[in-house]
Design goal:
Layout (H helix, E strand, L loop, with lengths): L8 H10 L33 E6 L19 H8 L1 E6 L3 H14 L5 E4 L2 H9 L7 H5 L2 H4 L4 H6 L10 E4 L7 E6 H8 L7 H14 L22 H5 L7 E4 L2 E4 L4 H16 L11 H10 L4 E5 L19 E3 L24 E8 L6 H10 L3 H8 L7 E4 L2 E4 L26 H11 L2 H21 L11 H22 L5 H28 L1 H7 L7
Parallel strand pairs: 1-2, 1-3
Antiparallel strand pairs: 3-10, 4-10, 5-8, 5-9, 6-7, 11-12
């Protein structure tokens, strides 16, 4: 099951910058024309080509257009239009309205020429019904797209029915790994800058903060749908190698973390912290909006997130957080004695592609030209414009190296919307430009600490390899059961932490869970054993754990 890791792809653009068919018939999609991709490498339209009007539906990925900016005509989308020789009419709903409008569009069967969707499962289901075409023949003749999307990534992007309906977003340059993020300024203030080395030492630091600042929330949480424990609710579970809603491979078998002794031990620690007031008393009801406010204003010491969220950039810190410094906590020197192996408390590498993808409607008037639009999103010219800007305006070249102009490029808040067009090379591919801007703007020591902590996490993730769960595709029925299982885990965990059930009753809940949902990870084990050689070649090291 390709599990959402800490944040959904469509929101990564926002977070990265804040630390920044029912009417379609037929089962087989139409094949591309014989000339598919024949002129793919051309950087400009042929003289005899007529400019076409085409429609596109896409998400803004959480980045709204500023007043006065036309989604269909601005310096960035114009690069795509010029390359494909089209006039694009873009429909870009607000982030909060996107899924509703997307579902309505799919149901109506009234599809535009090109569609961007972050929901591959739903979109591919409609594609199997004839809504979208298979793009493999186009891809095979397109060095422009192949530069960012490798054959391995296209293999990963295949639908359950074996089709390449989508050109996925690349995650290949995404900063690897995840981990426990700490407010280092609080470590400096209350622990003389020394990072704790055990869970007990971290708890003692949290106590110091709470005693000195009674209104602080050293540990809090964020509730997300069926997953009631996430982000700042995860650090203890992370260090115990047993995060909720996840698994481990142990002795050649995929085991549900909820059933592990390490999970129970982490729940007991969380209950202790709840009883002491270290853990937010509202941890079971804190939604996303409240969570952001608490992170900003209540001195939250720890949270868990992916490494790309700590890529430094040239943007100023949000008002009210100027003195806050975040970096990854180093690995513990001593892990809890109940933990069987510290590798279970270490990060893994991230999947090479995201859910965000581009599709071509079977109803488009010109499939070849629609493909040119997709290629337009993979051009070097657009890549540079998004992540560096325009030479002389956003950056200058000194000794052969691009240097950001202060306040421009990715540092210009009025142009952050351009990042939503990184639909092929990915929202993360501007790491180099971001870091270059940050090095000029950030405090030197803080910058060095951030980079060092990122490298440590990435090195560990690369050593551990990719996660098996990113390759397992569950049936719709099994996915529904996984959601039901997540709700069970959420309720039992919350009740135990709050003392509404005893730990003996929690054990009974685990037994009940095994009977009701144990078959889910049996499916993972079956998939792993049937595909071990392939998974090893792809870099899934845990198949041999």
């Amino acid at each position: 099951m390709r599990k959402k890791r800490t944040v959904t792809a469509v929101m990564l653009a926002v977070l990265l910058l804040s630390v920044v068919v029912a009417g379609c018939s037929g089962n087989k999609p139409p094949a591309p024309s014989a000339s598919a991709g024949a002129a793919s490498s051309s950087a400009s339209p042929k003289a005899e080509e007529k400019k076409l009007n085409m429609k596109m539906f896409m998400s803004n990925s959480g980045l709204a257009y500023p007043d006065g900016v036309d989604p269909s005509s601005n310096p960035y989308i114009n690069i795509v239009e010029e390359y494909a020789n089209v006039d694009l009419d873009l429909e870009v709903p607000s982030y909060t309205d996107f899924q509703t409008k997307f579902n309505l569009m799919l149901s109506s069967g009234n599809l535009p020429d090109i569609v961007h969707s972050p929901y591959p499962n739903e979109t591919e289901q409609r594609a199997d019904e004839g809504a979208f075409i298979d793009l493999k023949a186009y891809y095979d003749k397109s060095p422009v797209v192949q530069k960012f999307i490798s054959p391995k990534m296209m293999e990963m992007a295949k639908s359950a029915s074996g089709h390449n309906y989508r050109i996925p977003m690349s995650y290949a340059t995404r900063q690897q790994g995840d981990g426990v993020i700490v407010r280092y300024d609080l470590v400096v203030k209350y622990n003389n800058g020394k990072m704790p080395e055990t869970v007990e030492e971290w708890i003692e630091l949290a106590r110091k903060i709470k005693k000195a600042e009674p209104d602080s929330l050293p540990l809090t949480n964020r509730v997300i749908d069926d997953q009631a424990i996430s982000y700042a609710g995860l650090p203890i579970f992370y260090w115990y190698g047993a995060q909720p809603y996840m698994y481990r491979v142990e002795g050649g078998k995929v085991v549900d973390n909820f059933t592990l002794p390490e999970y129970k031990a982490a729940v007991q620690v969380m209950k202790q912290l709840y009883d002491e007031g270290i853990l937010d008393k509202e941890f079971a009801t804190t939604d996303s909006e409240k969570y952001r406010d608490k992170l900003k204003n209540r001195n939250v010491l720890l949270n868990v997130n992916s490494a790309d969220q700590l890529i430094p950039n040239g943007l100023p810190k949000e008002a009210g957080t100027e003195n806050q410094e975040k970096q990854f906590a180093p690995p513990l020197k001593q892990y809890p004695s109940v933990l069987k192996d510290s590798k279970y408390a270490q990060p893994k590498s991230l999947y090479l592609i995201g859910g965000d993808s581009l599709y071509i409607s079977a109803k488009t008037k010109d499939k070849d030209r629609a493909w040119k639009v997709i290629e337009g999103f993979a051009t070097d010219k657009l890549h540079e414009a998004i992540f560096w800007g325009f030479e002389g305006e956003d950056f200058k070249v000194e000794n052969g190296q691009k240097t950001p102009i202060e306040g421009q490029g990715m540092s210009n808040k009025d142009r952050v919307y351009k990042l939503q067009l990184g639909l092929i090379f990915g929202f993360y591919d501007g790491k180099e430009a971001n870091i270059a801007a940050a090095e000029k703007a950030m405090d030197k020591d803080e910058f060095t600490r951030r980079i060092d902590s990122l490298k440590q996490v990435e090195d560990s993730a690369k050593q551990n390899g990719l996660a098996l769960g990113d390759f397992v595709t569950l049936s719709p029925e099994m996915s529904a059961k996984k959601t039901e299982a997540n709700r069970f885990v959420s309720q039992a965990t919350i009740e135990a932490i709050m003392g509404k059930i005893t730990m003996d009753q929690f054990d009974q809940k685990v037994g009940e869970y095994k009977k009701k949902f144990g078959f889910i990870y049996d499916e993972y084990t079956k998939y792993m054993n049937e595909n071990k050689d392939k998974l090893r070649q792809l870099g899934v090291n845990e198949v041999d754990w």
